[in-house]
Amino acid sequence: MMKIRLRKYLKPYMRFVVLAPLMMVLEVAMDLTQPRLMAMVVNDGILGDAGLGFIVRTSLIMLGVAVIGMITGFACTVFAMFAAQNYGADLRSDLFKKVSSFSFAELDQFSTGSLVTRLTNDGTQLQNMVLLALRAFVRAPLLCVGAIVMVLSISRTYGLVIAVVMPVIALTAMFIYKKLAPLFTQIQERLDGLNAIVQENLSGVRVIKAFVRGEHEKSRFGVANEALKDTNLRAMFIMAAVLPLMMIVMNATVLAVIYIGGLQVQAAQMQVGDIMAALSYMTQVLFTFMIMSRIFVSIPRAKASGDRVREVLAAEVSITDGDAAVGSTGGDIVFNNVTFGYGGGEPVLKQISLHIKSGEHVGLLGSTGAGKSSLVHLISRFYDVCDGQVLVDGVDVRDYPLDALRAKIGFVLQESVLFSGTIGENIRWGNPNADDAQVLQAAKSAQADEYITAKEDGYDTLLGQRGLTLSGGQKQRASIARALLKDAEILILDDSTSALDLATESNLNAAINAEHAGKTRITIAQRISSVMNADRIYVLEHGEIAAFGTHEELLETCEIYQDIHRSQMGQGVAA
Ligand code: CTP
Ligand code: MG
Fold this sequence. Notes:
Number of helices: 19
Mean pLDDT: 90
Number of strands: 12
Shape: elongated
Distance between the termini: 59 Å
Strand order of the largest sheet: 6-9-10-3-11-12
Largest sheet: 6 strands, mixed
Helix content: 55-70%
Strand content: 5-15%
Bound molecules: cytidine-5'-triphosphate, magnesium ion
């Protein structure tokens, strides 16, 4: 897999990436100055004889330091947020572009649910990591080292306390990391699982209701939900247990600092204000360890997200533009010994050779799974052949720029998909430049006008997601209208009349015959009646062409065709 660096998304925002830590350095410096100033007020102002003026002056300086600390802290957060948000937006935009460029083969590979999670949740995780890196990553070590140096500058003896406390804290942090990191990875996985179930349930809710599988799905969700809760609870339990532990360490440290300080004050080696400052510094040290253990936990999480995002970005798009100049038109299609299998596996099309001349109408018949859809998908180059060649107008489809190739083809896919928006907009999808009269004409030919105008809002009727407010046959007719409006040289109808009654279907065929006469047309169907008037019918069996000829020829010679014919008697096929 190609190595992809996600860091490059920070490049355009380098000034923020540099400015944020810089501001943080200032903020930490201010945080480290404050206890020092306080010690001065106590030692010289209150206990000593520097006078009220000194106290007021130093207090004002402390106020100034606090204000600078606040401003730099705010600036740091703003810069870090700028970098992180822009990083996230650019990353998502690239992910989206990448997913849009996926060909059918890559779409077969990633599930929709997982792509959604990668684009949203994983993107956000990485974005949070940037924020964390620009703030906490800088703050924790700086403050820790700085505070230790300050404590030692007050009294070397405090080195003893640090020497005892540090290993305890470090071990605790390690323990947290060891225990929590895998838990958080597991949480991420379980969240994924839960998302998948929810997605499946939402898209399949009708099937679930039809089969009364609601209870089963609820328990499936329940199991995943419980599992997520359990893992979350275990993580929270560890974090909760750590807090009192840290408090004990903290209190012990406070005691040690006061005790050692007290001894030194008695020995006149130190003043009371210094003890107070030392206490502040030690607290800072302890807190940085808390922050660091949190950071350690979030690293594996972000790493998991990074891997998942990289997987998408690195996926090689198998179908890319060729560079042949688009020459002749006409819609002539040739298959030369084509063999094809999904993912290069078991061939579902074997040694297919056929020639569909410009302007011909060809039917494609065969039982389900015979390979009909696969065959026409190769013409639009949704997939690439494993062996052989598909030529459109004499040029190998792999040599075309994809847009140019697909501009030649009006495709009605087997599964009609419409988009949210109005019916009119959906039809206009086929050709955004079409005027209203053309849209109306396409809808009329597709036998869609009647049901559309019967609706209250006509062509402005709003469709729900995926056109769910239409019946199966209405959706099919809307997608046919969309393809007819495209007015391309080749028209491919993949089983797109399966939900239409025979009368509507024959009206549709008549309209297409009349208005798209010169076009190359491929009609896939289960019913003989849908294709019996074609110039030639190919009968596909197990990925091979079993026979071809006109309706009459096949009736005479082809046994499979006769069988199909017999089974469909009375369905509009003349006996
Ligand atoms: N297939 C596959 N992966 C896909 C699509 C199809 O492995 N993404 C396989 C199917 O399992 C089938 C074979 O390819 O065995 C042919 O599928 P297809 O061309 O879709 O068959 P059709 O003849 O179009 O079947 P139907 O009439 O049901 O649409
Ligand atoms: Mg099919």
